[in-house]
Predict the structure.
Amino acid sequence: MGKTYRKLLIRLGVLLAIAVVALLAVVLGLPSNRQRLPNPNGYDEFVKAGQQVIDSPGRYPDLDHKELEALVSDNAEALRLLRVGLDEKCLMPVDSALSNMNELMSQMSGMKSLAQLLAAEGRLHEMDNQPVEAARSYTDAMRLGNEMSRGGLLITRLVGVACEAIGCQRLAKVLPRLSREESCIVMADLQAIDTTHVTWAEVIQAERSCTRYHIMHNLNPVEWAVGWWNTRQSVQKAEFRNKSVLAHERLLMADLALRCYKSERQNLPARLEDLVPKYISKVPQDPFSQGPMVYRPQAGATWLVYSVGPDGVDDGGRPAAKGWPVKGDIRVDSTW
């Protein structure tokens, strides 16, 4: 019995060793496809801007007009540097991030503060009855989230998603206050973001670079295998968040196009395809179904437009509930 048991353990050990070697060969053998960093690099400006942030922008929802005015004024230099970065090509320097993860986490904190600062600026514009300027602040937060993610790791993308979500949530409230002409301006900004959006494949490619780095600096295959197994569900949840913010942005585009159509024609289109090409360049696609967003005209010249969500099931627009796995549809919370 003892010999049989030892033989079984030896066989299992051999199989495990073969599996680990095979996985290492696959991971280490993957091409890095590392891109050359642009010069100047907008990411560097984002880092500088984050270091310039004064006070706590995260409290912007609770501030009155005077307090918001002071917050935005005190952070004028941070906002200037941020917008310099938005006008430049961006790529996160992965090599330096991998060698100093504490510095990377500090940078991520600063960039989230920048998104909150843009939200504060937008809210101040709303109070001053400047909805199109407010919308521009919110789309800048979305651009920040997208551009800071370019070439970045999984954690970078998650913070980028959080920045984009801040912009999405605020922009949804402003849409009803925009004129048709202003809606066209915001539509152009959203379409530009969508056209240049960071793909999930880019994120995973950068994350593989991180895996290679840790394998080469920690040759304990058991620890690596356990870590890989434990992060599988985290990656799945991160992909859902990435698709979710993409769905929200495309739903905002559809909502704007429908408002423009209704404003000009005094009725609603029978289908989203009728918006192309005058009101929108192409029908917004649902990242969860790879088909068009679901569109349902409603009584009273209103409409319902939504994504089927991660379960791929059309629930008639019933909003997704919290929890995992996510059930229900994804909608934007805009008011009429």
Q: What stands out?
A: Strands lie at 294-298, 302-306. The two ends are 75 Å apart (CA to CA).
